[in-house]
Amino acid sequence: MKTALLIVDIQQDFCPGGALGVEEGDRVVEPANRLIQFFEANRWPIFFTRDWHPANHCSFAENGGPWPPHCIAKTAGAAFHPDLCIPEESTLVSKATQPDQEAYSGFEGTDLKGQLDRLKIESVVVAGLATDYCVKKTALDAHRAGFQVTVATDAIRGVNVVPEDARRAIIHMQVRGVNFAESADLINRLGAKEGGLFRPFAD
Ligand code: VGL
Ligand code: ZN
To answer: Is the predicted pLDDT of residue 4 greater than 60, yes or no?
Structure first.
């Protein structure tokens, strides 16, 4: 089964100190990098989504939305975390780029589905930020589009506007048929099953 990696919104504004900092958001970088390097070593497709808003985006509080201004296109806050590995071959997916449209899912208003289909992808691994918004919506849309979906448990963190939102989001995804696994287990399993470079992790 051909698998792609979807890295969701690991951007400065979603990391501690950012405009919409997620608690421990930067902790996803290390496990995400291990997944990225594994996919890159196998020459399997990698997609990076990014929240890429215009300065007058409808999700910002000044325009009646729920969020402080964040991930404004081309600003430092919209940049990927500086330690995130971005292989040259990978594909960038910018979303929520229109002033009057919110898009938590990497599939909303983008050609992500078309790109995955053209590559004959059947399953996706999802990691990134934030568990209770863009990771959730992206994973659910991927599942709805017919892909087998596995979310890397150690490579996601939630905003938790309401305490336990991230935990509830995980249950919601599980009920809908999304799978969950630790990144090291995923790598070992994909390496063994799909004939990928097998680089088992000791821990
Ligand atoms: C996100 C809130 C607002 C996300 C994006 O990437 O999860 N959350 N915009
Ligand atoms: Zn946003």
So the answer is: yes
